[in-house]
Amino acid sequence: MTPERWQHIKELLYQAQQLAPQQRTAFLARSCSSDRVLRQEVETLLSSSDARTGFLENPPLQLAQTALAPGARLGAYEIRSLLGAGGMGEVYRARDSKLGRDVALKVLPPEMATDPNRLKRFQREARAVAALNHPHIVTIYSVEEAEGRHFLTMELVEGPALSQVLPTGGLPIDRFFELAVPLADALAAAHEKGIVHRSQARQYHGGQQGQR
């Protein structure tokens, strides 16, 4: 992706954020014309900014200002794409140039990274989660800092988010238990270690090697 295209995406994102939700579809249809990829990129960022929650929530415009463009580097990692965002930061797919594998990077928001107390708390919690060993809990590889940004490197789990597999009318009972039992098992394992999961259920992913 060229810097010019990334700037165009951010401009469209900002304009869409100023509109009411019901006006955004028509705006993107006009602005993106026949460029389906462009529209998908803007919609992904827009969905991520709308999903931000929690006491560390950033205003919508900040995502457009701080999101890392594909091709940007953080230490040994090359950003491939933005996967999502929330109150605890932005999550990217990235390429680990040292080990030759794709990972997930969770980059902390500036207001958290510059607060010593919050940063220490985050580091403690990251160490606690890294100590967990469970097939349905994502693996944390490291806590790092590069280019003035603090971030986690994590296992990249392929698959849809929970919101993408929940039909409007609800799930059949067998499918419900197929999803709910691993989730409950993972939460129980975390609770046994004194870790409380506060994020919303959209962080569930049905990966090829199991649900995370």
Uncertain regions: pLDDT < 50 for 5+ in a row?
A: 51-64
State the separation between the terminal residues, measured CA to CA: 30 Å
Across the major sheet, the strand order is 1-2-3-4-6-5
CATH H-level superfamily title of the largest domain: Phosphorylase Kinase, domain 1
The number of distinct helices, counting runs of at least 4 residues, comes to 8
DSSP strand tally: 8
Write a short abstract of this structure.
By secondary structure, the protein is an alpha+beta fold. It is built from 8 helices and 8 strands; from the N terminus they run H-H-H-H-E-E-E-E-H-H-E-E-H-H-E-E. Helix 1 (3-17) crosses helix 3 (36-50), helix 1 (3-17) runs antiparallel to helix 4 (60-66) and helix 2 runs antiparallel to helix 3.
Write up what this structure looks like.
The protein has 212 residues and is α+β, with helices and mostly antiparallel strands. It has eight helices and eight strands. It has helices spanning 3-17, 21-32, 36-50, 60-66, 110-113, 116-130, 162-165, 173-192; strands at residues 73-74, 77-86, 89-96, 101-107, 140-146, 149-154, 206-207, 210-211. A hairpin with a 2-residue loop joins strand 5 and strand 6.
How are the elements arranged and paired?
Elements: H1 3-17, H2 21-32, H3 36-50, H4 60-66, E1 73-74, E2 77-86, E3 89-96, E4 101-107, H5 110-113, H6 116-130, E5 140-146, E6 149-154, H7 162-165, H8 173-192, E7 206-207, E8 210-211
Antiparallel strand pairs: 1-2, 2-3, 3-4, 4-6, 5-6, 7-8
Helix pairs in contact: 1-3, 1-4, 2-3
